[in-house]
Amino acid sequence: MNWISPFLIILATTFVLTSPSSTRGGTEAELIARGRYIATAIQGCGCHTREKPDGGKDENWHYAGSPNPAPPAGPPANAGWTSPRWKKIYARNITPDLETGIGKWSEASFIRAMKTGITPDGRVLDAQMPWDAFQKITDRDLKSLWAYLRTIKPIKNTPPERIPADQK
Amino acid sequence: MKSWRLTFLALGVLSLFGKACALKSSEEAIPADWEQVSYIERGDYLVNYLGHCVGCHTPLGPDGRSDMSLYLSGVPAKFAGAKAGPPQVAGFPGPRGSRVYAKNITPDPETAIGRWTEDQFVQTFQTGVRPDGLKYRTSPMEWNIYGNMKEEDVRAIYRYLRTIKAIPNNAPANIPPR
């Protein structure tokens, strides 16, 4: 009857791996679909897309960050945000553009930035980019968002550098 | 004989595991792709983390972070007319002098959404029209995006929002474009 034990172990392993409570990621296509749903229905990352004059998002600049130069006033997605530490802080380019976006990031560095606020180039993100909340996003959802962000159109745009609060 | 004992042990563990899964799902039927085990837990996750409604709907404290004592109660009424400041104070500036203020989404019946039914809440997300007939215009509250949310997710948000503290605050009315 020794033959039955390995069989049961395989059965048990299969059962655990296919259970819905498993935190495994899924196929690349499944991750992209899940990420697309998040980005187009729940967390639109709207701060990263500038607005048109009519107040709608400018889809020609989808996820490309603030314009440079930024206008002195207007919606924060265009003119930047303020915070106790920063006189002006501008949403970055999160398209996969290699030079001006996050095209050179890895999945691991994306997840690290979302969980710790530290980007691959050593920048510490301000609380305006609410990574203290985003760090509670599940790994599966973070991997999904990353997989989806890889599929969007790369756009060349370098938003202005943030201006410290004490700078004139 | 030893292997038989192992087999029975494995079977026992398996059936216990199966029972645990069945119990979990019989408590509340939830969509298979959720990583959360109930509507309220899913709503908590969407409101506080993934959707981060907190960011715009909660006033800021002196440190520039959300003041959790005013959790989700919208732009304080006292800031009506403020011309400068972050969106949680002065609203979001829009075209031709317009301003949009984050509203009170606590269960307060007088100043917030305490009287909304779950179906009215779902309908508001799906149509961008509030129960009182006010139609939302394009704004940082991106109805064109949130309208894509699956009904179960919207219901999860509603059920979570029913569990939070009701805070009276009449958020400033939006200023339409000139």
Overall number of structural domains of chain A: 1
Stretches of chain B where pLDDT falls below 50 for ≥5 residues? Answer: none
- Large-scale geometry of chain A: globular
Strand runs of chain B, count: 2
Largest sheet data of chain A: 2 strands, antiparallel
Residue stretches of chain A low in confidence (pLDDT < 50, at least 5 long) are 15-23
- Output the number of helix runs of chain A: 6
Instruction: Count structural domains of chain B.
Output: 2
Oligomer: heterodimer
Work out the radius of gyration of chain A.
Answer: 20 Å
Range of strand content of chain B = under 5%
Task: Summarize the topology.
The complex is a heterodimer of chains A (168) and B (178).
Chain A: H1 4-18, H2 28-42, H3 76-79, E1 86-88, H4 107-116, H5 131-134, H6 139-149, E2 163-164
Antiparallel strand pairs in A: 1-2
Chain B: H1 2-27, H2 39-50, H3 54-57, H4 87-90, E1 92-93, E2 99-100, H5 118-127, H6 143-146, H7 151-161
Antiparallel strand pairs in B: 1-2
Helix pairs in contact in B: 2-7, 5-7
Structure description:
The complex is a heterodimer of chains A (168) and B (178). Chain A is mainly α and 168 residues long. Chain A has one domain. Helices cover 35% and strands 3% of the residues of chain A. Chain A has 6 helices and 2 strands. Chain A has helices at 4-18, 28-42, 76-79, 107-116, 131-134, 139-149; strands at 86-88, 163-164. The longest helix of chain A has 15 residues, at 4-18. Chain A is globular and about 75 Å long. Mean pLDDT of chain A is 89; it is low at 15-23. Chain B has 178 residues and is mainly α. Chain B has 2 domains: 1-30; 34-161, no CATH class. Chain B has a two-stranded antiparallel ribbon. In chain B, helix 2 crosses helix 7 (151-161) and helix 5 (118-127) packs across helix 7 (151-161). Chain B is globular. The relative contact order of chain B is 0.17. The mean pLDDT of chain B is 88. The chains are: A mainly alpha (168), B mainly alpha (178). At the A-B interface, helix 1 and helix 2 of A face helix 1, helix 2 and strand 1 of B.
